[in-house]
Amino acid sequence: MARYFTYRSIKLSAISMLMALMPLQAEAQVSCGDRDVIVARLGQLFQEHRIGYGLVGQAAVVEIYVSAAGTWTVLMTDVGGQTCIMGAGDSWENTLMAHAKERDS
């Protein structure tokens, strides 16, 4: 019985610690602010421009910004006007253009 209790408390402690740390990691990845400021910074710092956007129901607009160097950023703006960076990275590949080039050759 003591072995079961020890294993259970270790397992519960580990799960509790993971659950406590998960929101911190998620918060560190999302940055929010005024859309005009964020878009201007993307242009200044990374030379990114919008290549497309879409609606998330009636709740938000998602936009994708990319640069010629391959950096990319995904923004989401909610109905209240707050814009958040949902993801960013590098090595963007425009598959539509790649497919058109393959088809034309």
Total number of beta strands: 5
Bin the helical content.
Answer: 40-55%
How are the strands of the largest sheet arranged? 1-5-4-3-2
Strand count, sense and barrel status of the largest sheet are: 5 strands, antiparallel
Name the shape in a single word.
Answer: globular
Strand percentage lies at: 25-35%
Taking pLDDT < 50 over at least 5 consecutive residues as the criterion, the unreliable ranges are 1-5, 24-28
Mean pLDDT: 78
What is the first-to-last residue Cα distance? 72 Å
Provide an overview of this structure.
The structure is a single chain. The chain has helices spanning 2-29, 35-46, 95-104; strands at 31-34, 49-56, 60-66, 72-78, 82-89. A five-stranded antiparallel beta sheet has the order 1-5-4-3-2. The longest helix has 28 residues, at 2-29. A hairpin with a 3-residue loop joins β2 (49-56) and β3 (60-66). Residues 1-5 and 24-28 have low confidence and may be disordered. The chain has three helices and five strands, in the order αβαββββα. It is an alpha+beta fold. It is globular, with a radius of gyration of 21 Å.
What's the short version?
The chain has 105 residues and is α+β, with helices and mostly antiparallel strands. The chain is 48% helix and 32% strand.
Features:
alpha+beta, five-stranded antiparallel sheet, 105 residues, 3 helices
List the helices and strands and how they pair.
Layout: H1 2-29, E1 31-34, H2 35-46, E2 49-56, E3 60-66, E4 72-78, E5 82-89, H3 95-104
